[in-house]
Amino acid sequence: MRLIALAAILAALAVPAAAKPLPPLSVSPNGHYFVTPDGKPFFWLGDTAWELIHAATPDEQAYYLKTRSRQGYTIIQTVVLGEVDGLRKPTPDGLTPFQDGDPSKPNLAYFDRVAQVVERAESDGLYVALLPTWGDKVTAMWGLGPQIFPPSDPARAEAYGRFLAGHLKCRDNIVWMLGGDRPPENDGVDYRPVWAAMAKGITTACGHDPLIAYHPSGGPQGTSYTLPNAAWLDIHGMQSGHGGGHDVPVWEMVAHDFALPKPKPTLDLEPNYEDHPYNSWPRWDAATGYFDDYDVRKQTYRSVFAGAAGVTYGHHSIWGMVGPRNDVINHARMDWVTALHRPGGRQMVFLRDLIESRPQLDRIPDDSLILEGQDSGNLHMTATRDAAGTYAFVYFPLNDRPATIDLTRLKAKTVKAWWYDPRTGFARPMGEHTGPTLKVTSPPTGPDWVLVLDDATKGYTVPGTKP
Known about the structure:
Residues 364-454 form the Putative collagen-binding domain. There is one protein chain. The protein is of the alpha/beta class. Helices cover 24% and strands 20% of the residues. Helix 3 (58-70) packs parallel to helix 4. It is globular and about 70 Å long.
């Protein structure tokens, strides 16, 4: 495995000029999406860089953030107390977060580094979904730990949350994320008081209620099941993950959350990582093959079309910053610099472009658009539209797939149709249509496509086409 030389690239990355501060995010009035203070929608296109703070140098951090910003990402998920022995293993320049592993004795130089990452992200136009700690520092289920925030002493977690948010000045480009790949309860042990205390400490330091999410472990039950009444929780999260094989029905998980009487923005915070072995957890086996860009697209498009407020991409070599200095984990097969340019990661912006090309805040899931052909598993099609019926998107996971679409779900006499290619971001028009139904077959190449349907009077265009 070879990490390409960064010197020439980094030399071109001059310290950025002071950028306009990013505005704080909040939940849209209908509870489903994110908005900025002026009411404009914000699409969560995240990347998973868990070990960015702990395992990368400042120059590497700068290169990573600049690259993801240029590629169209909007938010980066990273963790302060890292998973890979984050309390005892120092950063590349010798920093550890605490003296003697004691959270009441923070090493300010380490937390200054955290602040620098958050500030650099903002200068690149990026928000940061910041985990104060990975879950092994709270639970005793697995991982290196140690457990420094035990359920017996939630005050310790509250003090740490207050310190961290205060040290970071509760910057507006931070979305706080608790959990760290752990359930809030396990084997009769209730960890919820620890997370509630940490959230209280963060809120106290901020002086207002910041956005707080929770990153759970993988499985069909996200926070809408495990933390349904947590007053501090603003965002529902789930992890369709990489341990369940192909085509985990994330669309069902998202649809459940979207239909709640008191909804919150819902996100798949950890779908299948690109280039991760796809056999089932807990024994990863590279011989069975790896998830590729197609696997990633199927999960991300179907979760967003089912009603998610965005999605987080992940690459198996990036989360651990794999390279000459950081060990290969679970059969990662390339360094993180190479992984930054993998096809699935580069294609995620095409999903963002498509969603942002139409009104977002009244977008709803509507699989009833698909009268015939929806199917299940790897063939499952998912549809979304706006409440006013001016447009609709239908995700076809396979080429040459016939379907019958109910055009009466759109409030238009004439519907303009397009095929949108999620691999390239280009679209091809397929004319105007009238009548109650439309029979289509996805193009012969592929494999996957998005059918775009528009009220012909609206003048909408599709990314990758000219008006």
